[in-house]
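seq:
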Amino acid sequence: MWYGNCNANKDSSVMQQVKTAIKGFCALILALALICLIYVHFKRADLSQRVLVALRGELATELQVAYFNMDLLSSFPRISFDMHDVILDGKGGSKLLQAEELQLTMSLFSAFSDEIRFRRLSLKNGEVYVERLKDGTLSLDILKSSDRKETVEPVLHFNKISLENVGIEYLDPTLDQEYQLHFLVGNITGTYASQLLKFDLSGEVVYDHARIQKSVYLNGMKGNASGRIALDLDDQLYTFEDLRLEIGDLRYEINGNVHGTDDAQNIDLVVKQTDGDLHSFLALLPTAYRKDLPFSKVSGAFITEGFIKGRLNRSENPHVHFDLQLDDASIESRHGSGSLHDLEIYGAFDNGAFRRLRSASIDFPVIKGNAYGQKFDASLSVTDFTDPLLQCTFEGSLPATFILDYIGKPDVIKTASGSLHFTDVAIGPLRLNEMDFTDLQHFEGRCTLGNLEVRTAAAHYQIHDGILILAQDTLNVSGVKMKLDHDEILVDGWLAELGDALESNDPAYLRYAVNLKAGSLNISKWIPGIAASTAHEIQARARPVSLHTSTPLRLPEGEIMLIADQFQYNQIEATKLSMIGFTKTHHVRFEATGEAAKGSLVTKGELEIQNGYQLKLQVDGKDLDIRECFTQCENFGQQILLAEHLQGKSAVKVLAELIWDVEGNLDEEQMHILAGMAIIDGELHEFDMLDQFSDYVHAEDLRYIRFSHLDNFIEVRNGNVYIPAMFIQSNAANLVVNGVHTLDNQILYNIKVNAGQVLAAKMKKHNPKLLPLPARKNGTFNLLFTVAGSMDAFKYDINKRAAESSFAQSTELRDRIREQLRAAFGETIDLIEPPEWETIPEYDMEQEGEEIFLDVIDRQE
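struct:
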């Protein structure tokens, strides 16, 4: 018991002695520190001078300091030297460092040493500029050559460098490269001994940009940097170990070294991107590239791994190889219509055997995904990055909305739906820099159309099915069914030399053959732009539509055939239409047959496009309903003789030559039309000219006449419409009319009327059957009148000599028109004036007869 108490007391005494010794030692250290602090305080001026001398003695370049201060308290037990507005030149005379604040820290006891050695450096609000010089060294090499022994440490020996708001810029003029990053907060821990720097790096960084020649990458992305770096400035050896760069959501790991020599850099680096996102990767691209991307949002895991190995100088490049992988990616269009999703891409980049962009390639053998709900598989390769050559394949389906989203939707299209199914599609080799997608020799594949629908403001187009096959610059079209409302067209044919036509922007290079079959076809609805406007609408336009081009329009060479059970253009309707057209450069030739206006039509024409447009047209119509003709043709653009004035069956033969200038204006002075027309069993009523004539001669039956024949020739020439003698055998009287009608509606007509028939009709009771009077003289005489003025205001007059002279001249005109029509058609409508209708010789003294006729008229008023 006693023995135990003795041991306890002994242990307690020992512990007490240890505590007392420790306190004494600490007191001694504190006393020494205070003594040193007091000493340094009184020697601060000398110590500050020694520090500046030591710094300048160690540096081979100039150091400028605006303000220098030694601080003993804020960093105790260390001594700090604060410098403000510091400028340090680099090797070669360029600026290496510019900072608002630079702080050097050393041990308190280092003040009593013969050597000045710093352990810590802090930079605030500054810039560091590192440049590769012409001799291959860095401007960072700023220390003087030292003859000191290896055991003697240099002055600038740091184990920690702190950075706050410090930018670092690296420039290599030889390779035309520039890199800038900005440390928000950073620490560099290690040694800076003589020409050897070994340190651990960590910090928050903004990657301002990386410029490689004219392309700028990174674009101010934020991230972190960490890892171990060793810089041997004497041997120009730069080693990176587990250097991790976090750029946005991308994380790169770099290992290896770069060894500089007099004529090259020997690079041996391995780069891994262990974690990444497609959006962050695209954000690295130059702004000019990113703004042209046809999508708005992207996502997906993006991974790269590769190496850079070999010599880099003016004539050599290292071997560069990177494997690329994109998984579970999604890309949304700018228009928000849908997305590419479940996207997977696998491939690699390699700069090839020559280690240059010329031999570089990027190859994606696997590209697959889902486009707006439709699956596809593709591949892509690009070679020769100096003049990129593209090749790709495609299998799968693409919705119409996807295609319009990514190639651009024309404003005229409001909505689109349906899909295009592609098989055996191959593109390339194609020069990407030239964007020569017009060279269709490098395109081939098959496209099946599936229930496509396109809506515009004016129409709703549907394509139920069909096949397009592109091969060797030729597009074959098979079984394409196009529908608009109740109209449906079946299209078959081919178009060749598409590439030449697209490349030169000249359709004359195109060759084609197209067959169109339709049950019903309303061309005005299919192509709304060709629908004719009303006269009022045309006049209301601020300016006419111009057809003018700097060069004459050139047309492709080929033929088009159209067969339609029913055809409509504006008010014009036809059935059993069969048409064939031929085009070549500046020439169009066409022929068409069909049934229209309850009759039949045969049309032929030729159009020349040379400094304007010259149309030669030939129309042969039989058994046409004259009222229907006027109705469908909208009264041929005039408001004088209207459809409601006419009734009867007509046969027409027309030859026309029409000329438009390059602006699309019809040249009325050069317009030439020859026409022959016969109306059989027709009626003419409420026609203003005859209404007024009936008032003039007091013959009510002229307001509503019926004729067995109305035979006529017309010539349009020099801006005038010429009508030779036109015989009308009617219920009221037998008439012959001729005259001239200007295109601005000024008229001069002559009328020859059987006065006896008119007088007899007035004596008789009205004949409601409106039977035509026989074509004979009936023992009476003829009267001749003139009608002059405008169609809105004209007057009648008896003018025998003028009328007879005009009728005599019209014989020559009539014969000339007849012969030209006969030459063109082989037969023509013939004007036959019955012999009984000729002027009677014994009535040469017609003045007496005229007076008797007019007296009778006056008595019956």
